[in-house]
Write a structure and sequence with these properties.
Blueprint lengths: L6 E3 L13 E3 L20 H6 L22 E7 L13 H8 L3 E3 L2 E2 L5 H10 L3 H4 L11 H6 L5 H7 L3 E7 L15 E5 L9 E4 L2 E4 L4 H4 L1 H19 L5 E6 L38 H5 L5 H35 L5 E7 L19 H4 L3 E4 L7 E3 L3 E2 L3 H8 L14 H11 L7 E3 L6 E8 L12 H14 L14 E5 L4 E5 L1 H13 L3 E2 L2 H22 L17 H14 L28 H7 L26 H8 L8 H14 L11 E4 L3 E4 L2 H4 L1 H34 L22 E2 L3 H41 L10 E6 L15 E7 L4 E7 L4 E7 L4 E5 L16 H15 L9 E2 L9
Parallel strand pairs: 3-10, 3-11, 4-13, 5-14, 6-7, 6-10, 13-15
Antiparallel strand pairs: 1-2, 4-12, 7-8, 8-9, 11-12, 16-25, 16-28, 17-18, 19-22, 20-21, 23-24, 25-26, 26-27
Helix pairs in contact: 2-10, 8-10
Length: 920
């Protein structure tokens, strides 16, 4: 251990007013790891040898006089929100084009795999396609617990931080980031809570939530991001001079609410570069449902696109200033030639294209193509590279620049080989414009995906079941799903030879609980033990008597449990009132009536009332025998016990047809005129009712029968009310015993109970249950608060647009009025509504660019297919899917299906020499 005392430093961020947490500096912090040999590109030009001579000047203290080592480069990622390429926004940022475009490499075919904020940013951080990190929309799984546990711990920040980089993040993070935690891997953190804002926002500054207002000089967010970033660089190089820096500057511009700095609010009026050939090209009957639904824009919509384009360009001027400020700061610190600067956006944007007023999330060039500029050591100036680069390539690129081995699970590829080839070609060239040819073996196709399968379309694709099996297999590898079940374990995984199965630990947990109870220290009164033993023996005898009871063929039981004469009389009386006079019942045996085990003083149960209730049960008689013949003229239905008792005994003299006829005659012919059916109707077993014909056409008979039924129902309800009162009384005076003990006459005195000591595991169980209960209560409280917050927000929106309806089923619509923009130029043309997206706009697309092909092939969740040849139709105006041959469609479909389920760079790369694309 070193003998020097660690330095304890505390310093203040300029422009933020927040104290940065003090750091301890030791010899490990002063050590800069080596740069891998594969990053040492040839220095055969004298200018580069002079500029990068500092790479070999630094030596580790323990290696002085042995060999030279090189410093790792700084890495800075500058990210904008919703910046386009097709609409020309980058052309209005002269400082950025001069510093990064002319001073570095420009990638002309840079794309995002999902044109939505949160999925695209998640892909940048993790190097994964959306189908692998499972962030499909701006709400679904965005900054969710699953994302935090499975993917946020494996971003490029965690790898670079472990490799010795000082990491920092300033700006917008993910749309659903709530600011309750600091993501792993970031040494300095100032993340925006929720979505993009320019004023009136809250940030998490190293664990402290700081609210900002609407003062430009203190709160304008793009300037704040730039100031905090410069302060971080300055202090990092002052106190950690030999440690490389990984910095992310994530600006909200040009995302809404498009509030520019005051000094730029008069620029770019009447600029209409957004009016491309696809602008207001509508309706599009050959494209997906959304574009077939969308018609041409109205004049108010056209005016809105013009003003919105102006405001977007104005907000980007602050980003342009920040890049110049960053350039000057790095130059003053002497770190410019040892720093890689990447400039890009999370996705593109459209303003009136195909009649869509504004938005993103479409698979077309204006939404998926983004700017990508790179400046850094060994990057020739003014290079133009045409190879396809996608957002999942950023993470592996940063790792390779930082000397970290690329993990196998990453779907992207490092673009360092492209920069290396450009350097080898143009290191000695003095040309102004340098075009780099397509690299052999590099990808020429990639996947564009948006959204996920909805509930109605889940059965259309079998890949989901394979994905589920893979997820279950991964889960079963975790210790909390191990088998056999342990104490407090809820689930266990069992492998049946083909696949993993998950089941509850119910039986094992129950057995363990019983074992725990048996091991507890318990004691009881000895006198009570003898009484309980006596009652248990009596109960066992009664149980055995029940189990030995047999029934003969006629359905009669043994004499031990024969029906009592009093009960038989009651049943005879009941049947006499409800059936024909010629009917003679034969009674089956039944168990004896249980005794009521309550004292005489508490017996308030009205037994006679229950007996009288039988006179009102004529409506409940149902016939349980259906006809066994094809003769449907007879209405079958009588109790099955009657057939077993009476008809089976006389089977030698009565035929089945006679039984059929007698039952039908009793049920139909005489049933209507008997005293038991004064209303003339009978309910049969098929949940239907049959009545005599006069009821259906005679008004007096119908009313008389209806009044009789109403009176009967009223009386039954009154009797039911009394019975419920009796039941409540019984529940209050319920005895303590249960089961067969209720049939034994034993004293009502309870006596002393058994007592048991709570052991350590019982205490753990109670503590665990309390924790679960508190967690459920907290979850319910949070859910209630979120619901109330959404309701308040909805009420505010309704009050804001009172009398203005902007709702369409299964459509994503937005409203705009005169109060929407708080900074000039204002909107003064009144409110309007527009629907910009739909629920069925879920797609998977194959985008291919090589020496022979340049096309977009898409399959939608509805089964719709699109194909655009961008060599002849660069603005994608015509769906040319019907121009293709069948084998061409099959080839593209096969490649698309491969990319849809790919995992890892090798599986997710379709290169020129490996793909089977048809040739012209």
């Amino acid at each position: 251990m070193p003998s020097e005392k660690p330095w304890l430093l505390g310093f203040i961020f300029i422009g933020v007013g927040t104290v940065v947490l003090s750091k301890e500096i030791n010899r490990e912090d002063d050590t800069s790891p080596e740069v891998p040999d594969h990053l040492v590109w040839p220095l055969d030009h004298s200018r580069f040898q002079d500029e990068f001579s500092s790479w070999s000047d630094y030596r580790k203290p323990e290696q002085l006089g042995t060999r030279k080592v090189r410093k790792k480069p700084n890495i800075i990622l500058i990210m904008t929100d919703d910046q386009d390429v097709e609409l020309g926004s980058l052309n209005f940022m002269p400082k950025t084009l001069r510093i990064l475009g002319e001073g570095g490499a420009q990638f002309r075919n840079a794309y995002v795999t999902t044109p939505m904020c949160c999925p695209s940013r998640s892909s940048m951080l993790t190097g994964l396609y959306a189908h692998n990190h499972n962030v499909h929309t701006n709400n679904d799984n965005c900054s969710s617990p699953q994302w935090q546990q499975e993917h946020e711990t494996r971003t490029f920040a965690t790898y670079l931080s472990n490799a010795g980089y000082r990491t920092a993040y300033f700006g917008k993070y993910l749309n659903e980031y709530n600011g309750d935690y600091i993501p792993p891997g970031w040494r300095e953190w100032a993340g925006l809570i929720r979505n993009s804002r320019f004023y009136n926002y809250t940030i998490n500054m190293n664990g402290n939530k700081i609210k900002h207002g609407d003062d430009y000089y203190h709160d304008y967010y793009p300037d704040l991001i730039a100031n905090d970033s410069m302060t971080f660089l300055r202090l990092s190089k002052q106190y950690f001079a030999e440690k490389p820096v990984m910095l992310v500057m994530s600006f909200p511009a040009p995302h809404g609410p498009e509030e520019s700095a005051p000094q730029y609010q008069n620029l770019f009026h009447n600029v209409t570069t957004h009016r491309t050939p696809s602008w207001n090209y509508a309706p599009n009957n050959d494209k997906q449902w959304l574009l077939r639904y969308t018609g041409r824009m109205e004049p108010v919509h056209m005016k809105f696109t013009d003003i919105l384009h102006t405001k977007r360009l104005q907000t980007l001027q602050s980003v342009d200033d920040a890049i110049e400020k960053l350039y000057n700061e790095l130059k003053n610190l002497g770190e410019l030639e040892n720093t890689y600067i990447f400039y890009t956006s999370d996705h593109g944007y459209h303003l009136g294209q195909f009649g869509l007023v504004k938005g993103k999330s479409q698979p077309f060039e204006f939404d998926v193509r983004v700017p990508l500029l790179v400046r850094g050591p060994l990057v020739p100036e003014g290079v133009r590279i045409s190879d396809i680069v996608i957002n999942v390539d950023l993470a592996p690129t940063f790792l390779e620049l930082g000397g970290v081995n690329r993990p196998e699970h990453l779907d992207g590829k490092s673009i360092v080989p492209l920069l290396k080839d450009a350097y080898e070609l143009f290191s000695k060239s003095r040309e102004v414009s340098k075009e780099v040819k397509l690299k052999k073996g590099w990808r020429d196709s990639f996947l564009i995906e948006r959204g996920k399968l909805t509930k109605g379309y889940k059965d259309m694709y079998s890949e989901k079941s394979m994905k589920k099996k893979k997820l279950i297999a991964e889960k079963c590898g975790q210790p909390e799903y191990s088998s056999p079940c342990k104490f407090f374990q809820k689930w266990e995984c069992i492998y049946d030879g083909e696949r993993w199965r998950v089941r509850k630990c119910r039986s094992a947990y129950f057995d363990q609980r019983i074992n725990k109870k048996q091991r507890r220290n318990c004691w009881c009164n000895s006198e009570e033990d003898s009484l309980l033993a006596e009652y248990a023996s009596k109960a066992l005898e009664i149980k055995q008597a029940h189990s030995k009871t047999s029934f003969d063929l006629a359905g009669t039981a043994t004499k031990e449990l024969a029906m009592k004469p009093q009960e038989r009389l009651l049943q005879r009386k009941f049947l006499k009132e409800h059936v024909n006079q010629g009917f003679r019942p034969i009674f089956v045996g039944s168990r004896r009536r249980r005794e009521i085990l309550v004292p005489e003083s508490l017996q308030k149960f009205d037994v006679n009332g229950v007996i009288q209730l039988s006179h009102w049960l004529d409506l409940t008689v149902k016939d349980d025998i259906t006809s066994q013949t094809n003769n449907s003229d007879f209405i079958m239905g009588f109790h099955e016990d009657y057939l077993k008792s009476s008809e089976l005994d006389k089977s030698s003299t009565l035929t089945y047809h006679n039984r059929n006829h007698r039952i039908a005659q009793r049920s139909v012919s005489n049933g209507y005129h008997s005293k038991s059916n004064p209303h003339g109707c009978v309910a049969i077993s098929s949940n239907s009712v049959i009545c005599v014909d006069p009821i259906y056409y005679d008004q007096k008979i119908w009313r008389k029968n209806k009044n009789q039924l109403d009176s009967a129902i009223k009386d039954l309800r009154h009797k039911l009310y009394e019975l419920k009162g009796l039941r409540r009384q019984l529940k209050k005076k319920r005895p303590q015993s249960s089961g067969y003990f209720s049939q034994v006459d034993y004293p009502m005195s309870r006596g002393p109970r058994c007592h048991c000591d709570d052991d350590e595991e019982q205490q753990k169980l109670k503590a665990w249950r309390n924790e679960q209960r508190k967690a459920r209560q907290l979850a319910r409280q949070r859910k209630k608060e979120a619901r109330l917050k959404r309701k308040e927000k909805k009420n505010r929106r309704k009050a804001k647009y009172k009398g203005f309806d902007c709702n369409t089923d299964k459509m994503n619509c937005f409203t705009h009025n005169n109060n929407h923009w708080k900074t000039p130029p204002y909107w003064t043309y009144g409110p309007f509504c527009f629907c910009q997206n739909s629920n069925n706009n879920t797609y998977w697309c194959l985008r291919t660019i090589n020496s022979t092909h340049n096309f977009l092939y898409c399959e939608f969740v509805t089964g719709f297919i699109m194909y655009f040849d961008l060599r002849t139709d660069p603005y994608q105006l015509r769906n040319a899917v019907y121009d293709l041959e069948l084998f061409e469609l099959e080839d593209m479909k096969q490649q698309l299906n491969r990319l849809r389920k790919c995992s890892g760079a090798k599986d997710c790369t379709i290169a020129s020499q490996s793909q089977g694309l048809w040739k012209e």
